[in-house]
């Protein structure tokens, strides 16, 4: 009886589609690995990693993409053949959320942050923020993605998220510039924004130059604060130069102070251009 059962199970297994086999195996993979594989599939065209997306529920917040798994597939079909390149530099997990920092060639060179929400082991929601990749490094020689990738201080995740949230609220939302220095260790600050140099003094000088040119930057609302250890990502809504924009800011915290910063800024199109009704945030 046992032998017959084994033969039956073996025969049944041979009939299971490969995609289903991958989905079962993926239950034992780290969510971060699943996300990295899914993003890489944009470049390789591999179908197996897409099995991590729930085909019955996939809420899309990229306003240029139609809702659902079909919308994701349609977008990939529009890519020029062999044009996509995906190099994911950093991947983090905060509960059911996984967020990644990626160097793309996706309809042109871009730097992006992607956030995926898992539910019952499947991805059910996606947000992102993409910015055109500059041709040169910033005034201090940094790119938008270089720098440390090591995740540490996992026991300080909650505290670090609070530090960064307070910084964004105080400085970028409420403009309480008198509190600025308290969030940094003197002038020690590494900056990856393509237009701003290192050091706190460099940030102040850059903001002053923007003001002289009449370029205003205003954060209106924080939508998400996600973190793992010494890295914290803040998703905010505001205006840059009067244009409705989405700000994704990744901070590295060291000894309770902000030590490093990466970001992407994307203009939010008018609602008449949206391909889904889920909103940017």
TrEMBL record:
<keyword id="KW-0812">Transmembrane</keyword>
<keyword id="KW-0472">Membrane</keyword>
<protein>
    <recommendedName>
        <fullName>SnoaL-like domain-containing protein</fullName>
    </recommendedName>
</protein>
<dbReference type="InterPro" id="IPR032710">
    <property type="entry name" value="NTF2-like_dom_sf"/>
</dbReference>
<keyword id="KW-1133">Transmembrane helix</keyword>
<feature type="transmembrane region" description="Helical">
    <location>
        <begin position="6"/>
        <end position="23"/>
    </location>
</feature>
């Amino acid at each position: 009886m046992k032998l017959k059962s084994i033969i039956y199970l073996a025969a049944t297994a041979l009939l299971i589609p490969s995609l289903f086999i991958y989905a079962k195996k993926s239950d034992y993979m780290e969510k971060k690995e699943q996300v990295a594989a899914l993003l890489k599939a944009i470049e390789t065209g591999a179908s197996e990693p897409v099995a991590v997306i729930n085909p019955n529920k996939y809420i899309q917040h990229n306003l240029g993409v139609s809702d659902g798994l079909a919308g994701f597939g349609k977008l990939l079909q529009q890519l020029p053949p062999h044009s996509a390149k995906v190099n994911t530099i950093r991947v983090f997990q905060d509960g059911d959320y996984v967020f990644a920092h990626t160097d793309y060639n996706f309809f042109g060179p871009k730097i992006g942050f992607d956030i995926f929400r898992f539910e019952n082991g499947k991805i059910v929601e996606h947000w992102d923020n993409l910015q055109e990749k500059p041709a040169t490094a910033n005034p201090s020689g940094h790119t938008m993605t270089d720098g440390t990738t090591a995740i540490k201080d996992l026991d300080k995740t909650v505290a670090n998220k609070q530090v960064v949230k307070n910084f964004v609220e105080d400085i970028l939302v409420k403009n309480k510039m008198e509190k600025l220095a308290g969030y940094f260790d003197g002038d020690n600050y590494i900056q990856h924004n393509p237009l701003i140099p290192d050091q706190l003094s460099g940030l102040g000088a850059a903001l002053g130059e923007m003001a002289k040119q009449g370029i205003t930057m205003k954060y209106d609302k924080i939508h998400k604060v996600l973190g793992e250890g010494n890295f914290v990502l803040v998703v905010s809504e505001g205006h840059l130069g009067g244009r409705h924009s989405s700000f994704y800011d990744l901070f590295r915290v060291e000894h309770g102070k902000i030590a490093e910063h990466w970001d992407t800024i994307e203009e939010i199109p008018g609602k008449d251009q949206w391909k889904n009704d889920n909103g940017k945030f």
